[in-house]
Amino acid sequence: MALAFSPDTERAFDRIVRRYPNLRAALIPTLFLADREFGYLSREAMEYVARRLELPPSWVLNTATFYTMLRKRPTGRNHIQVCVNVACYLRGADQLGDHLKKQLGIGFGEVTADGLFSLEGVQCLAACGTAPAMQVNDVYHEDMTIQKVDALIESLRLAPQTSGAATGQGGAR
Predict the structure, then answer these.
(1) What is the pLDDT of residue 170?
(2) pTM exceeds 0.85, yes or no
């Protein structure tokens, strides 16, 4: 079955396209929309956006691969990003990353078998003054310690599970 936006996302797509003077200008906002709708930007999702915007698929692929905040593979329901840039590194981000890898049983770029967590090292979360920093989905966590990481992971494990885009099953994150 071919991909298609849900009715709510279709309305959002129409609002975005009407705001821009040409379809190419709407590319980045519609990629974010597709990422949220489909859980990540698969090749099929990027081709769908290209068709909808009447753009060459290569333009969409080039744009999507340039922006690291657009996901190109499935992520866990709780996508954990650990800043590994110099400010966070100097304040212990490498130990936090190693601890998370051990605790979750995955490396950077991987998803737990149950789909609950994915882990990624990122270059900057723009929280240098409150390093080390992490982001879980769209929520920042700053001044992190091993103890704070453990408490956060435990709270995420206990949180009610609902389907969502982060699992690649559609819906908002």
Answers:
(1) 35
(2) no
